[in-house]
Write a structure and sequence with these properties.
- The protein has 265 residues and is mainly α.
- The protein contains ten helices and four strands; from the N terminus they run ααβααβααααβααβ.
- The strands form two sheets. A two-stranded parallel sheet has the order 1-2. Strands 3-4 form a two-stranded parallel sheet.
- The longest helix is centred in the last third of the chain and has 30 residues.
- The radius of gyration is 18 Å and the shape is globular.
- The chain starts with a helix and ends with a strand.
Length: 265
């Protein structure tokens, strides 16, 4: 079976149910070791992956601030659900786009796509329990914007999407959990535990492939990362950082020192 064709089909599906079904199929085929990672398939730029009509996408800086009311908490749950839906597409694009990588690269990102689909379903099911569903509130497109901007090089993708954007979730989750702990939406604490532990593994995968590619190309990882941050993000990275979680995701002491030096809070 051609993993690139299947990944592309899942990536471009605008049906939530179909996307999750295709991701589950990919995951099952991976586990049965019947995917041919030497297959050929087209490589197209994807400015907009498959997504449902709702949520409506708004600019990040125009998104309203979420308050401490019940609806504010529900909007936060929806925002996290939206991140997890986007993360499915991020992982699928990595599995589809970059060729001539070791088989393990594709297996890793198919696994990530599957776990992100599980996270999305956990959160959407909870929203449904609360009388809402994914799409009831606006979302933003920041995660995909960076994914599209780094489609030119697997090294740039590994440097910035898992190690910056997804790693930001490791920094933010404990604070979000504290908010939910003292609310009527306490089940979110346990759901976020599941997501947090899996996301450490996802960031760790990004770290592994970023460093592998730097070594393969005889590049200094710190200076290469710095150049990519300046090119795509700017001079500063958003802190504060969850140092313990980032260590579990295999950030080195040198990398953590770099982050602290370049951070803004």
């Amino acid at each position: 079976m051609n993993p690139f064709e299947l990944s592309y089909q899942a990536l471009m599906s605008s049906s939530i149910a179909e996307k999750i079904t295709l991701v589950s199929k990919l995951h099952s085929l991976k586990n049965r070791q019947v995917l041919d990672y030497q297959s050929t398939y087209k490589i197209d730029p994807v400015e907009n992956p498959g997504r449902p009509v709702k949520p409506i996408l708004a600019r990040f800086n125009t998104m309203p601030k979420r308050g401490k009311s019940d609806i504010g908490f529900i909007e936060t749950i929806h925002a996290i659900c939206h991140i997890e839906f986007n993360a499915i597409n991020l992982a699928l694009d990595a599995a589809y786009r970059f060729r001539e990588m070791p088989d393990q690269f594709y297996q890793d990102w198919i696994q990530v796509a599957f776990e992100e689909s599980q996270h999305f379903q956990l959160l959407n099911n909870y929203l449904i329990e609360l009388g809402y569903q994914y799409g009831d509130f606006d979302g933003h497109n920041g995660l995909w914007k960076m994914t599209f901007e780094t489609d030119y090089d697997v090294l740039a993708r590994m440097a910035l999407v898992p190690r910056v954007l997804e790693a930001r979730g490791l920094d933010a989750t404990p604070k979000i959990q504290k908010r939910f702990e003292n609310s009527k939406f306490k089940p979110m604490v346990g759901l976020l535990d599941i997501i947090f532990n899996d996301e450490i593994g996802h960031v760790k995968i990004g770290n592994y492939w970023f460093h592998s590619l730097c070594k393969q190309r005889s590049l200094d990882s710190i200076s290469t990362f710095n150049q990519l941050v300046i090119k795509h993000i700017g001079s500063e990275l958003r802190g504060p950082f969850n140092i313990e979680a980032r260590k579990l995701a295999d950030f080195s002491e040198e990398e953590l020192d770099y982050l602290q030096a370049r951070s803004t809070t």
